[in-house]
Amino acid sequence: MTMKVLGYAAQSAKVPLAAFEFTRRSPRDDDVVVDVLYCGVCHSDLHQARNDWGGSQYPVIPGHEVVGRVKSVGKNVTKFKAGDNVGIGCMVDSCRVCQPCQHGIEQYCQEGCVQTYNGFDRHDGLPTYGGYSKTILASEDFILKMPDGLDLKGAAPLLCAGITTWSPLRHFKVGKGSKVAVVGLGGLGHMALKLAHALGADVTLFTRSPGKEDDARRLGAQHIVISTDDQQMKAVSGQFDLIIDTVPYEHDINPYMPTLTLDGTLVFVGLLGDITPVLSTLPLIMGRRSVTGSAIGSIKETQEMLDFCGEHGIVSDIEMIKMPEINDAYERMIKSDVKYRFVIDMDTLQA
């Protein structure tokens, strides 16, 4: 039986989000139905709501940093039970049979993983709706267990901002002795600092804005480099094994390339679009350096990250908001007026 659910939706690219009752699909035998407690606010939510990337299917109900409590489970579910604290991240399904899925990296599913919102269910073709809602559901294989003792409010952004930075840190085997730099101090950047530091790396923040030193050090950076200062940039030439670039808009990465070690890598996690200006290949060729990208992380990686955060007491720095404040939060997010992630108290969602 389908479920009538209250959510907050964008009905078009030009109107504010507002309360909206919609229908969720019927739960299946492997589904977990979750009452949403908290939902983080990601830049992707704003972009999808406003069709900045094209392809938004209205109504859009955003939200892919979802923390809640299990309401019910299907008869075939073995991993969860009613009352468990769980999370849902950026995807709720994949083809499960292609090579990436078989290798446990279903975020790179060759048929495209099913997005938590603004996607389409693989079985019935119905649209998916996100966590700005009272209730959500997904197959147990795409549900995450929240570690005991982890603050659920602060844990919500781990399901996107956390895993998006954790995945490249793990892929490139960051640990004690690694030298990691992070470009940008926002929702993604602050999690990259925390996680890289907890993994034992020597961590540097690249920033264009003086005055972030105290915050950066509190979050785990041992060093701060003003990227517009030529002398500071020259002083870190050839130092970094990995640079995680979290900036979500077009920017020049040429100044960062000489700061990589031999075989060092700059990985994009924030920018969806073109690199401008043109990237010079000289520092790549002369230092066998690489530029790559990374998308969220697998369910296995996400659970690993959550367990790591539980062991180390790591959560996002958040500002709690009420559901009706979401449109103002979007405007503030555009201005980077949040340290460092908004989280919605879903109890405040009313018709």
Commentary on this structure:
- With 351 residues, the chain is of the alpha/beta class.
- It folds into two domains: 3-160 and 316-348, Quinone Oxidoreductase, Chain A, domain 1 (Alpha-Beta Complex), CATH 3.90.180; 162-293, Rossmann fold (3-Layer(aba) Sandwich), CATH 3.40.50.
- It contains ten helices and 17 strands.
- It has helices at residues 43-49, 99-102, 152-155, 161-171, 187-198, 213-219, 230-235, 282-287, 299-312, 326-334; strands spanning 3-9, 18-24, 31-40, 66-73, 85-88, 91-93, 114-115, 135-139, 144-145, 179-183, 202-207, 223-226, 240-245, 260-268, 290-293, 318-322, 341-345.
- Strands 3, 4, 5, 8, 9, 16 and 17 form a seven-stranded mixed beta sheet that branches. The protein has a six-stranded parallel beta sheet with strand order 12-11-10-13-14-15, with helices on one face. The chain has a two-stranded antiparallel ribbon with strand order 1-2.
- Strand 16 (318-322), helix 10 and strand 17 (341-345) form a beta-alpha-beta unit.
- The chain is globular.
- The two termini are 22 Å apart.
- The mean pLDDT is 96.
- Its EC number is 1.1.-.-.
- Pfam families: ADH_N (PF08240), ADH_zinc_N (PF00107).
- One of its GO terms (molecular function) is alcohol dehydrogenase (NADP+) activity.
- Belongs to the zinc-containing alcohol dehydrogenase family.
- Its cofactor is Zn(2+).
